[in-house]
Each structure stands twice: as C-alpha cells, then as structure tokens.
Amino acid sequence: MLNAMGNMAAINQRNRLIAEQKEQASAIRAQTAALEKRNRIEGDRATMESQRLKIEKQRLRAEEAERELRKQQAEQLKQLRNLMADSFATLERLEKLRPAN
Fold first, then answer.
1. Angle at CA of residue 17, ends 11 and 23, nearest 5°
2. Which long-range contacts does 76-79 make (Cβ < 8 Å, 24+ apart)?
3. How many CB atoms lie within 10 A of CB 79?
4. pLDDT at residue 100 above 80?
5. Is the pTM value of this prediction over 0.70?
6. Which of 67, 65, 68 is nearest to 57 (CA)?
7. Phi-psi category of 62—alpha, beta or left, where left has phi over 0 and alpha has psi -120 to 50?
8. pLDDT of 36-48, one tens digit each?
9. What is d(CA 72, CA 79) in angstroms, rounded to the nearest whole number?
C-alpha cells in the first residue's frame, strides 16, 4: 500500500512537472510570437524609413537640378543681353558710316 501511495505521489509530481513545462512552453511561444510581431513592425518601419529617405534624396536632386537650370537660364539671358547690346552697337556704327542721302 505504501508502495502504491509512493508511486501515486511520484506520478502526481511528474504530472505537475509536465504541467509546469507545458505552461513554460506556452509562455515561451507567446513571447516568441510577440518578438516576431515586433520584429515585423520594426522591419516595416525600417522599410518605410528607407523609402522616405529615397524620396527625400530624389527631392533634393530635383531641387539641385532646378537651381542648376535657373543658373544656366540666367547665364543664357546674360549672354543674350550682351549679344543684343553688341548688335545694337554694331547697328549704330553702321548707321553712322552710311552716307546721308
């Protein structure tokens, strides 16, 4: 009888250990799921930040191209004005050289 009671106590102890291990395994699975979810969220954030940085870089390049275009246009306008001034000066000299009728 004592032997049977000892066996029952050992079985109960083993069952408690198994139940505790199942609880621990369940807690570990829940923690793992939470970590995986957090990692996915962080990955999504990193992807979005990378895309935002690419867009920002493109915007900066566009602004730089626009500044360069304005600079070139200003230079071309300056050259055109100089050319027009030279042309008018040449026309005035030609007018002075033309014999009066």
1. 135
2. none
3. 10
4. no
5. no
6. 65
7. alpha
8. 999 999 999 999 9
9. 10
